C-alpha cells in the first residue's frame, strides 16, 4: 500500500549560477564544485526541472519548499536578488509543486530587510532560510536583529540552517584521519547540528526572544540535538543563569513551545523521532527530506515506518506529512 497522504517538504535545496559567479568574483570555487563529498549532488542541486519533479512524483512529495544550499561566503545583496529571482521563476513555472524560502544578505541588515519584504510581498515566498552564521558571526549580535524584526512583522518563518564555519573545523575536528572525514565531522555528521542547536541557546541567553516574542523559527534535523538535552538545559537556565543576571521574560520551555518548529530533514530513524514526539507539540513537527543531500526515497520509507510504528495516530501522521506545513506556511497542497 502506498503512503496515503501527500507530503510538503520544507528543506529542499538548489544551487544558483549567480552564487557560483559570486564565488568566482572572490577567486574561490563554490563548495559544491570542490568538496568531494558534496560534488556528487551538484547535478541535482542545479536542476529545478523535470528530474527533480519526477523524483518528487515517484515519492509522494507534493510540494518542495525550495531554498538555496548553504554557503561559507556571505552572499551580497545583488547575488541574493538573482538567486531569489531564479527561484521565483521556477516556482511560477510549477505553482503546484514549488514554494520558496528567500536567500538573504545577512551581512547588510538594511538590504536583508528590503530583500525579505520583496520576496514575501512581490515574489510570494513563504519565509526565509538563512545560514546558521554570517561568516562565523552569530545572530545574538543585535547588529542582525532588524531582519528578525521584519520577519516578525511580516509573520513569516525563518529557517535557521546549518552552514560552514571555517573557524571551528581545524580547531575541533581535524585529527588523525583523512581531511574528508574531518570535514564530515565538522558538518553534517556532527558539528553543524551542535552549532545550530547552540545558536538557539545563544539567542535565548541574549533575550532575543523577549525582543521578538512572535518570531517563528524552524530548526531542521529533528531539532539539531536540542530535544535530547532540552530538560537538562532548561534546569540549568532556571537555576544557574539567574545567578549570572540572565533571566529572560519567558523560560526556555515556553520559547521552545511558542517560537520553534522542527523538521525531520535527513533524520529518518524512529528512535530520535520518539524523543521529538515527547518534546514537541504535535503541531510543531514537520516533514523535510534535505534533498538532494538526502534521498526522497528515504523520506518515504521513514514515513511508512512511522505509520507502522504505532507512535502516531493517523491525524498526527497527516499533520506531520503536510497539515502542519500548510498552517505554518499558509499554503495548500
Automatic annotation (TrEMBL):
GO biological process, one term: secondary metabolic process
Cellular component aspect of the GO annotation: cytosol
InterPro entries in the record: ACMSD, Amidohydro-rel, Metal_Hydrolase
MF (Gene Ontology): carboxy-lyase activity; hydrolase activity
Keyword Lyase: yes
Protein name in the entry: Amidohydrolase-related domain-containing protein
Domain Amidohydrolase-related: 70-330
Family affiliation: Belongs to the metallo-dependent hydrolases superfamily.
Species for this entry: Cladophialophora chaetospira
Alphabetical keyword list: Decarboxylase, Lyase
PANTHER family: 2-AMINO-3-CARBOXYLMUCONATE-6-SEMIALDEHYDE DECARBOXYLASE, AMIDOHYDROLASE-RELATED DOMAIN-CONTAINING PROTEIN-RELATED
